[in-house]
Design brief:
Blueprint lengths: L10 E4 L3 H12 L4 E4 L16 E2 L10 H20 L3 E2 L3 E5 L5 H14 L5 E4 H7 L7 E5 L3 E3 L1 H14 L3 E3 L2 E9 L2 E8 L4 E6 L1 E4 L5 H7 L4 H4 L4 E10 L10 E4 L9 E4 L5 E4 L3 E3 L11 H9 L10 E11 L11 E4 L8 E5 L9 H15 L1
Parallel strand pairs: 1-2, 1-13, 2-9, 5-15, 13-21
Antiparallel strand pairs: 3-8, 4-8, 5-7, 6-7, 10-11, 11-12, 14-17, 14-18, 14-19, 16-17, 20-21
The protein binds flavin-adenine dinucleotide (FAD).
Flavin-adenine dinucleotide (FAD) binds next to α1, β10 and β19.
């Protein structure tokens, strides 16, 4: 255990990704004494360290979906937290581009959704205006989203951990939750350390923020995950780094119109000024983060539609992340599941399932909702 709280824990949070830590910090702020239980040796070692680190404005999701509402709320909370705690971030804005006239209707859909979701007005740019804003980008038209940005995801996660610990909460690393039994007054968690030590923890309330494994945790709690439609599909996204010799490729985030199941292979830059292309979309059955170098050809072709100078030789495998998706290939939009499961016979448990993008942006808002649900359940 990396730190000890001041009192006996009254809520266990399973998973020290950015969302689990945000939930624990929120609960501690409300007077609880949380313990976060995490398999790995450190925080944010899975999806929370394998993503684009983009602060999404909330322009893509169906209005009134949790993804839309929590993204808009979470974005503002995230920027405020970053300003207050000096967490590295930049509100650099994003350009979504149509590379041909036939893609204009996709931009119109995004503009309409953004307005209906309260994500903020987007500005239309014609080809010449796109060129003035981004001299190396070629496009038929573009939408400018000024509220998008980038953030240091690890620093954000560390800020939640620091807040949790300063309020008397605890973090148990190297510890896996292997069982979850309902009791008359809460839950008994069977845990195992990576040295094989076993320990049972009894707590009144539990938050399941186990990311890629959250459906399995729900199953351990006795929930019928298949009947509920909570079975996760893993969907890998690879990234390629862009050779530094290409210099300052773009000033902003540049995205094509969204692809099926993803936002399309886009250009991101991190706070160190390094450019990456990605992520693609590949449903997988196993947890492997290897990036196949042979994909460089396909990535270069996708990016060259709006950045014509990109060649496969400019790209090198860099990183991969895996999305915990509720929808399978070709299936319709699925929203985040954020549910207190008292009505399913499992009271005092909040399950967070399918927390793919924009989960990083929305982390503080997801935490606010999870804590509200636990509080309402008594
Ligand atoms: C390719 C990609 C790009 C993305 N880009 C963006 C983006 O630009 N902007 C954005 O807002 N979002 C983005 N996202 C989404 C964002 O990264 C996730 O929504 C967010 O990181 C989810 O955090 P989490 O805490 O729910 O999950 P995780 O970070 O996966 O944390 C879950 C934790 O639970 C632990 N755990 C699991 N089972 C157990 C157990 N039995 N016992 C103990 N611990 C356990 C795991 O070890 C893990 O550390 C992206 C995701 C991907 C994959």
């Amino acid at each position: 255990m990396s730190s000890a709280g001041t009192g006996a824990p009254d809520v266990a949070v399973i998973g020290a990704g950015i969302v689990g830590l945000a939930c624990a910090a929120e609960l501690a702020r409300r007077g609880s004494t949380p313990i976060v239980i995490e398999t790995h040796a450190g925080i944010a070692r899975e999806t929370s360290s394998r993503n684009s680190e983009v602060v999404h404005a909330g322009i893509y999701y169906p209005p009134d979906s949790l993804k839309a509402r929590l993204c808009v709320e979470g974005r503002e909370r995230l920027y405020a937290r970053c300003r207050e705690l000096d967490i590295p971030h930049r509100r650099i804005g994003k350009l979504v581009v149509a590379t041909q006239a036939s893609e204009r209707s996709a931009l119109e859909d995004i503009a309409a959704r953004a307005e209906a979701s309260g994500a903020g007005a987007l500005s239309w740019l014609d080809a010449a205006e796109v060129g003035r804003r981004e001299p190396r980008v070629r496009a038929h038209a573009g939408l400018w989203s000024p509220r998008s940005g980038i953030v240091d995801a690890h620093a954000l996660a560390a800020s939640y951990q620091a807040e949790l610990e300063s309020l008397g909460g605890a973090l148990a690393l190297h510890t896996r939750v292997a069982g979850l039994e309902p009791r008359a007054d809460g839950w008994s968690l069977r845990t195992e350390s990576d040295r094989g030590e076993r320990f049972d923890l009894e707590v009144p309330r539990v938050v399941n923020a186990a990311g890629l494994w959250s459906d399995r945790i729900a199953e351990l709690a006795g929930l019928d995950v298949d009947a509920l439609g909570w079975r996760l599909r893993w969907c890998k996204g690879d990234y390629f780094g862009v050779a530094p010799r290409l210099g300052a490729l773009t000033r902003h985030l540049v995205y094509p119109v969204p692809a099926a199941a993803g936002l399309g292979i886009h250009v991101t830059l991190d706070l160190g000024g390094r450019y990456r292309l990605g992520p693609d979309v590949e449903y997988v059955d196993e947890l492997s983060y290897r990036v196949d170098p042979a994909k460089a050809e396909r990535f270069a072709r996708a990016a060259a539609r709006y950045l014509p100078e990109i060649r496969p030789r400019d790209l090198s495998p860099e990183l991969a992340g895996i999305r915990p998706k509720l929808q399978g290939p070709g299936e319709a939009f699925r929203d985040f599941v954020i549910r207190e499961t008292g009505d399913l016979g499992a009271p005092g448990l909040v399950c967070l399932i399918g927390i793919e993008s924009p989960g990083l942006t929305a982390s503080a808002a997801i935490a606010r909702l999870a804590a509200d649900l636990l509080q309402a359940a008594g």
